[in-house]
Every structure is written in C-alpha cells, then in structure tokens.
C-alpha cells in the first residue's frame, strides 16, 4: 500500500514538473523544444494496437547548421491489446461447465493494457536544408523509461467470480511478470517549417522485455516547436 501511494505521489510530481517546464518555456531561452504526439502502440507480435500519446520538453544543442543533440523529458503512454482467446467456463465451485449436449462451454477473453512512462530519449539529428529556414530532419538515438501508471482491462475471464467474469481492472505494474524499466531505440523523420514547427513520424523500438513475452513498439505523428530559433 505504501509503495502504491509513493508511486502515485511521484507520478503527480513528475506531471507537475513537466507542466511547469512547458509554462516556463518562452522565458528559458533558445534551444528549448515543446513536444507532443499521438499514434498507436503494441508489442512486436501476437497483439493488437491501442492508442498512444506523448508530451514533454527537450533542449536542442547545435554542433553546426546540420547536426544537433537533443535530450528530452517526456510523459508517454504505450500499451497493447491481447487478441481474443477461447477459454472454458467454470461454475462457482471451480468445475468446468458443460451444455445439455455434453460439450464444454467456452467464452472469449481479451486484455487491454495501458502503460505510462517517464521517458528520456537522447536524439542525434541531421538537418537537410530544402529552402530558406526549411529542413528535412532525420533523428535517432537511445531512450530509457520508467513505468509510473497504467491499467489492465480484462473482459471474459471465466475463471473469476461474479461480475468480474465480464470485466475487471488491475494496475499494470502490479502484475507479477511486468517490468517497470524500459529501454530501446527511437527514430524520427520530419520536416521543419520556417515557423520552427517540425512535423514528424517517429517510432520507439523497445529492446527490454515488458513482460515474459513482449516488448514495446509504438509509432506516433509528432509535432515539436523550438523556441528562439
């Protein structure tokens, strides 16, 4: 119980910090970037996609007119949906149920998992100029992340009792086989407009295991704005 309260408190503090940084961006000088995005997430195989989103801030250091390095602090939501699987029905005593013809009764069970992280990517970018103050941007780099929130929604779990046979929820990172730490590679291709807005397509490829069988993967349409450029 204390661990859950601690994590909830840390979650709120991190969101408050990101909000304060976003509010303070115009006053903090050149190089700061506001980042938002939305798209889809899943695991590499055997799962269905769910919605994903991110928001955060970064700081871009310029080596020259072509190369930059940008560390960021993002709040990002990923997840996946397990496909429907056939499961047997059980009676209140835990015994298998059969219909009048002696056939075992079955149902469909599915699970949707959401997992929110505080994520720290470090992106190396190359700017290819196409016109005055306009660039095609290629970015790639590693990220590390720590899970702070999320829930697992289960439908059709016939091994449960009462209404939970139809639906129940549980915290994502309380599951015995789920890992909070995530790390991988992020890549992005985008176009920077003269207004310092960059519209991009980015993807995260998890290298560490989310659970015993899956690794995170996500694709987002992103929008970033650099102040002072």
Descriptive report:
- By secondary structure, the protein is mainly β.
- The protein has one domain (2-226): Beta Barrel (Porin), CATH 2.40.160.
- It is 10% helix and 58% strand.
- It has one helix and ten strands, in the order αββββββββββ.
- The protein has one helix at residues 2-24; strands at 32-43, 50-59, 61-62, 67-88, 106-131, 134-155, 167-171, 181-192, 197-206, 216-226.
- An eight-stranded antiparallel barrel has the order 1-2-4-5-6-8-9-10.
- A hairpin with a 4-residue loop joins strand 8 (181-192) and strand 9 (197-206).
- The N and C termini lie far apart (47 Å).
- The relative contact order is 0.19.
- The model has no long low-confidence stretch (mean pLDDT 86).
Mean pLDDT: 86
- Total beta strands: 10
What is the domain total for the residues? 1
Question: What kind of sheet is the major sheet?
Answer: 8 strands, antiparallel, barrel
Q: Unreliable stretches, pLDDT < 50, 5 or more residues? A: none
The span between the termini is: 47 Å
- What proportion strand? over 45%
Rg from Cα: 22 Å
Structural class computed from helices and strand pairing? mainly beta
Give the H and E element order.
HEEEEEEEEEE
* CATH topology call: Porin
Question: For the record, what CATH class applies?
Answer: Mainly Beta
- The CATH architecture: Beta Barrel
